[in-house]
Structure formats: C-alpha cells, structure tokens
C-alpha cells in the first residue's frame, strides 16, 4: 500500500466509502503510482503539464489537459498545484463534474496553501473533514449545487494579453522577457520560442516581417491555450510539448527563450541547461540562440559546450542576455 495521505486515510477508515465501480476524475494527478491500491472503477486524469500527462497516458490512464465537456464523475480528487488561482479553478471544475452530494477530495502540501484552502472550502462543503500528515492535508466533503461557481475560469490578463490561472507571469509582462524582446535584432526565416508561455515573446518575434514561421513550444496547456488567443498570425504553429525533448520539422534559423528554472517550488538550473541543449539540437548550423536569464543562473558552461561562439550582451543588474552561435553537440569554445 502506498504511504500517500490518500491511501493512509483510506486504510485508516477515515474516508467515505465509494463503490469499486466509481468513476473518478483526478485533477493534477501527479503520477500513475498515485492511484495504486485504490479501488476505483475508472480514472480520468486532468493534467495540463505535458511531461506528466505523457507519463500518465503511457501507463494506460485516460488523460486530458482540461476537463472534457460533459465529463461526469462519482468522485473527484484535486492534487493542489502551486498557484492558488489554478487550485480554485480545479476545485470548481471538480465540483461541477459531480452530482449534488458527490464527494470531493483535495490533497496538498502546506507550502501549496492547503490549510487556507481547507478553511475557504469548509463552508462550501457538507460533511467536511480532513487528515493531516507529512506537512500536508487531505480534506473532503460533499458538494452542493453551484457553491464553487465563483472560482471557475478567472479572466486573467496582462495588458491586452490573455493569460491564465497558474501560468508564469499571469498578472503582467515578465521583465526578463521584455528585456529580451528589446534586444532582438531583425529575425529571419524559421524561429522557435521554447517555453513560449502565453505568447508575449511570440508576438514581438512576429513583428519581424522576415520571419516565415514561428514554433511556439509550451508544456503548460493552460498557457498555450492563452497563447492561441493572443497569437492569430498564420505563421505561428503551436506545440503542447516538453521543450527539452521537442524537435522541429525543419532546422531553425533562430531560437528565442526565457527558460524556466523551477521544478515545483525548488530551483532547478538543470532545466534551463536542458533548454539550451534542445535549442542547439533544433538550430541549423548557421542558427543563433537568443537567451535571457537571471544573473545567478549557471548557464555559461552549457552554452560553451553546445555552441562554438557565445556573446555576452548588455543586460541589467537582475538579468543577463546572451547570444550563442554555431551550434554543436560537444566541445569547447571561446567567448567574446
């Protein structure tokens, strides 16, 4: 038996009983193993993060990036994401998928705000209760009609851009991306925007008439859906994909990126290094990478390894700008 809060609460008889034929929708399902030893009939995972969604689908779990229209369930589970706005949206959508009186279970770490969400949900749930373990909480209750409707699909914007709950820089244009956009020269040919988010950099890139094609690559389906609304240029192509593994249909003339450097709440410079390696693989021999990053992030060694020429551009106290040319798989180089 797994030692997750859900399985422990079930083992200890704390949870309500459900039929072993129960239809379950699970928002934010973290891994196939999360459902092991739990007597569910069918499980539908709602997972907008492509790498995780891919693992779930490979394990044979029916997986969607968003709740399908008309999806009904007997039991709904929400594993909390980092962002409260996304957590509230998921809770509202989970509740809407249930019949009146259906059971909603919410699980999360204290660092993800589970305690404050429990307080906010208690008055909206009937027969609510909770179980705390391992710096987190699992809580549950019966849903009533329309009690979470005010938490559904908030209209989030950054200027004239649509954003979305839980996406990077949801409430404003990221200053690092803005700095990079100002530094770009006239771009030409096929361009890739790795980690495109909701499309700020993509719109700036498409202002260059000589760009013939732009690939927007983004792992968060919610962010990519916003980008589709923000970018209507026919030169744009949208890819729900892990940028570190994605390959273009044809080699690119340029890659532009402000790579992420967090996995959950933990900083992970290795993620940015993987983006750099992916850019080198995607570029044509004459291609160039344009990169912005926080000053403290150690990307220079990876750039040295993957490119034959790296140029440090004028940045700010907070952010560094770099241009890398002549991609290669391994080796050393000089820097200017």
UniProtKB/TrEMBL annotation:
<dbReference type="InterPro" id="IPR007848">
    <property type="entry name" value="Small_mtfrase_dom"/>
</dbReference>
<feature type="domain" description="Methyltransferase small">
    <location>
        <begin position="160"/>
        <end position="322"/>
    </location>
</feature>
<dbReference type="InterPro" id="IPR029063">
    <property type="entry name" value="SAM-dependent_MTases_sf"/>
</dbReference>
<protein>
    <submittedName>
        <fullName>Methyltransferase</fullName>
    </submittedName>
</protein>
<keyword id="KW-0698">rRNA processing</keyword>
<keyword id="KW-0949">S-adenosyl-L-methionine</keyword>
<dbReference type="InterPro" id="IPR046977">
    <property type="entry name" value="RsmC/RlmG"/>
</dbReference>
<keyword id="KW-0489">Methyltransferase</keyword>
<dbReference type="InterPro" id="IPR013675">
    <property type="entry name" value="Mtase_sm_N"/>
</dbReference>
<dbReference type="Pfam" id="PF08468">
    <property type="entry name" value="MTS_N"/>
</dbReference>
<dbReference type="GO" id="GO:0032259">
    <property type="term" value="P:methylation"/>
</dbReference>
<dbReference type="GO" id="GO:0008168">
    <property type="term" value="F:methyltransferase activity"/>
</dbReference>
<keyword id="KW-0808">Transferase</keyword>
<dbReference type="InterPro" id="IPR002052">
    <property type="entry name" value="DNA_methylase_N6_adenine_CS"/>
</dbReference>
<dbReference type="Pfam" id="PF05175">
    <property type="entry name" value="MTS"/>
</dbReference>
<keyword id="KW-0963">Cytoplasm</keyword>
<feature type="domain" description="Methyltransferase small N-terminal">
    <location>
        <begin position="58"/>
        <end position="134"/>
    </location>
</feature>
